[in-house]
Amino acid sequence: MRLTAFWKPVIISVILTPVFLFIAVISGGAGHGNYFLAKVLFPFTMLSTYIFHSITGPFLLFTIIQFPIYGIAIGRARRRERRGLTTIWLISIHVIAVLAGFLFVDQNFS
């Protein structure tokens, strides 16, 4: 069975999501570690802690679907021969969110 250009990044992102979640949870040490890797991997959820002072349900869901969304965006872009531009945009947005996550720090998630 041959995978189409759309499905390859989607499948890769779905496979990587639980690995990245595991890494983020382990680095957090159940509240006794640091959140560096969680902030790097899941910056949008960690940014939400600055506002809500905890990880809320909707942002926990976003943590689970963040990388599959990236995979879908890259998969769609591959169909239209815009994979490079889309990947650059996704990385740029992600890096900006990571930097913002380190700039705006909640005392419980520093």
Explain this structure to me?
- The chain is an all-alpha fold and 110 residues long.
- The chain has one domain.
- 75% of the residues lie in helices and 0% in strands.
- The protein has 5 helices and no strands.
- α3 packs parallel to α5 and α4 packs antiparallel against α5.
- The radius of gyration is 15 Å and the shape is elongated.
- The model has no long low-confidence stretch (mean pLDDT 89).
Taken as a percent bin, the fraction of beta residues is under 5%
**Number of beta strands:** 0
- Count the DSSP helices: 5
Element order, helices and strands? HHHHH
Shape: elongated
Please tell me the overall pLDDT. Answer: 89
Summed up, the domain count is 1
Uncertain runs with pLDDT below 50, 5 residues or more?
none
Multimeric state: single chain
Largest sheet: none
SSE arrangement:
Layout: H1 7-28, H2 36-41, H3 43-52, H4 57-79, H5 83-103
Quick structural summary:
The chain has 110 residues and is an all-alpha fold. The protein has one domain.
Descriptors for this entry?
75% helix, 5 helices
